[in-house]
Amino acid sequence: MTEYRLTPLAQSLPATVPFVGPETQERNMGRQFDARLGANENVFGPSPHAIKAMAEAGHWMYGDPESHDLRQALATHHGTTPDHIIVGEGIDGLLGYVVRLFVEQGDAVVTSDGAYPTFNYHVAGFGGGLHKVPYKDDHEDPAALFAKAAEVDAKLVYLANPDNPMGSWHKGEDIAAALERLPARSLLVLDEAYVETAPEGTALPLAWGDPRVIRMRTFSKAYGMAGARVGYAIAAPELITAFHKVRNHFGMNRAAQAGAVAALADQAWLAVVKDRIAQARIQIAQIGRDNGLMPLPSATNFVTLDCGSDAAFAKAILDGLVARGIFVRMPFVAPQNRCIRVSCGTNADHAAFAAALPAAIAAAKKG
Amino acid sequence: MTEYRLTPLAQSLPATVPFVGPETQERNMGRQFDARLGANENVFGPSPHAIKAMAEAGHWMYGDPESHDLRQALATHHGTTPDHIIVGEGIDGLLGYVVRLFVEQGDAVVTSDGAYPTFNYHVAGFGGGLHKVPYKDDHEDPAALFAKAAEVDAKLVYLANPDNPMGSWHKGEDIAAALERLPARSLLVLDEAYVETAPEGTALPLAWGDPRVIRMRTFSKAYGMAGARVGYAIAAPELITAFHKVRNHFGMNRAAQAGAVAALADQAWLAVVKDRIAQARIQIAQIGRDNGLMPLPSATNFVTLDCGSDAAFAKAILDGLVARGIFVRMPFVAPQNRCIRVSCGTNADHAAFAAALPAAIAAAKKG
């Protein structure tokens, strides 16, 4: 075996995946899942106009490296200008870029213990030092995050609103008020991936007024296009410009660009999907209650169910569900890992979940 | 304006784009190009089966982070195993990953002066020091590249075969022979993006036998799927594993994965496209000759035309073509920049090119 001269940092990194995909689990099990409720995908899918636009895209041409039409449409939608917007290969891709721009070995970064692991993966990947604060009553805790940022002189602070994996949320005005405590030289990475399914007033009202905030949005959730890989960020133009120094300029799929433009234009479809998601949350919550699990309030396209005991019990229920063909996931960190997390599905998905859950719980109780 | 705390490296980087997209040029001109012959796209497009597969993909689901089915199909196609293969967001994305894995500030990297600028962009982006050797008779020069690698203790050496922007190529066996001079601890990044359109025997015959070589391939050229963003690399499993430490695991577009599987399975379509490309090369060469430009031999889906003078003259012809609605590009570096580069198009594209070229040359001669 050749000894490859990886950088010391690369050598030190584990070759681990933040999430194991459902397809991997299916291959390992030798069967397909009956219900795919683990990745917070949106089974109601994209606007028919978006599907059509993607099918009709000229696949032979590279995408526009400026994502001009999409940035223009997003700017109009959000009441800003395109120089405030960067489009990238999903929020995951954009998180990688922002971490790369800010973090080198030893730089401090703050997040919540149990928040999005892919952000942590990027921070580790560039040698940053992660400082974590606990959730507070199943909510991320902006005051604690910003206090920790001051304490460790954090370059970046990550906050998801609404939160994944708990589904909880803060009012945008409360986050705006908490920003007074954000250190002047820290950048808040505000992940609003789920904001379209949240109550009015959840999005940060400051909009792009505060240059210390970069907001992440996506077409993967409410817009139903997870497979297309279209995320975007909204920030001050000076910060947006920095992305051009490191991004994969021709990295965007051309059909996905066209699909996102069409999806954004079809707000009527988005309204239909939001209604279906709201109905699905009620169904999942009821299935949980019927089986003695306590649903947490959700502003997202999933419902987190408190299994009422410890991580081992929740994991046993999760394993029982997976063994019965129901793909779900669960939080990674205590005390949130007393829960399982169930994405909104179709009525058929929920019926399959409801059919499998009693036996999964019974088996978990036997131990 | 806030002073963002970018890393010193990020601060030092220019916010420049390796290539300006044709859409940007069109927006600046206020008109569409009549012929899109500048980005070495494949106007004949993907297999109809690939188009169908992309249209029917479940856009609401994330792609398989392992690209399992595609890696399996590629392994079978190349007579290897999937652990030798990594799939990524185009060769551009994979080049970014390999540079990130190997290069930190001050590390030496070797390439040809005038070779692929996006590779150089990635090297600069991670702080590497680029050492360049000249082309030799419009060919990249493996012996000189490997000698330079020994001299500067290069971690990476970049070589494209066939070459872009000159369209020239080496026999695979000649590159294999030259590998004797590659330093034991240098990694050769062999970009074979255009190999499907090259004569038999152009691909490196050593295949994955030499762990000092990583080969890059793509669905963007002969397979006609530039918009889909599917590249792959073939290397020793120990090296492939390292990619999992840094890549965007859920970065692949799900439809693109399915499309690539279908495209690979349709080798009959590939044969049709290769034939059309061969015919197109003959047409472009003839148009060049008819106008006093000397076509260089090409193993790619483009023809480089020697304009017979200096860079200023070639640039004037290029500008004249662009002004007349013909999108073409040219090499960046002397003496290759005495040429313009014309991608294979349809008969209509070539007719538009042939119609515009005499006036573009005449205007260039006037100065």
TrEMBL record, chains A, B:
Pfam families: Aminotran_1_2. It catalyses: L-histidinol phosphate + 2-oxoglutarate = 3-(imidazol-4-yl)-2-oxopropyl phosphate + L-glutamate. It is an enzyme of class 2 (transferase). It comes from the Bacteria. Residues 37-356 form the Aminotransferase class I/classII large domain. Keywords: Amino-acid biosynthesis, Aminotransferase, Histidine biosynthesis, Pyridoxal phosphate, Transferase. One of its GO terms (molecular function) is transaminase activity. InterPro entries: Aminotrans_II_pyridoxalP_BS, Aminotransferase_I/II_large, HistidinolP_aminotransfase, PyrdxlP-dep_Trfase, PyrdxlP-dep_Trfase_major, PyrdxlP-dep_Trfase_small. Pathway: Amino-acid biosynthesis; L-histidine biosynthesis; L-histidine from 5-phospho-alpha-D-ribose 1-diphosphate: step 7/9. Its cofactor is pyridoxal 5'-phosphate. Its EC number is 2.6.1.9. PROSITE patterns: AA_TRANSFER_CLASS_2. Gene3D superfamilies: Aspartate Aminotransferase, domain 1, Type I PLP-dependent aspartate aminotransferase-like (Major domain). PANTHER family: HISTIDINOL-PHOSPHATE AMINOTRANSFERASE, HISTIDINOL-PHOSPHATE AMINOTRANSFERASE 2. Belongs to the class-II pyridoxal-phosphate-dependent aminotransferase family. Histidinol-phosphate aminotransferase subfamily. This is histidinol-phosphate transaminase.
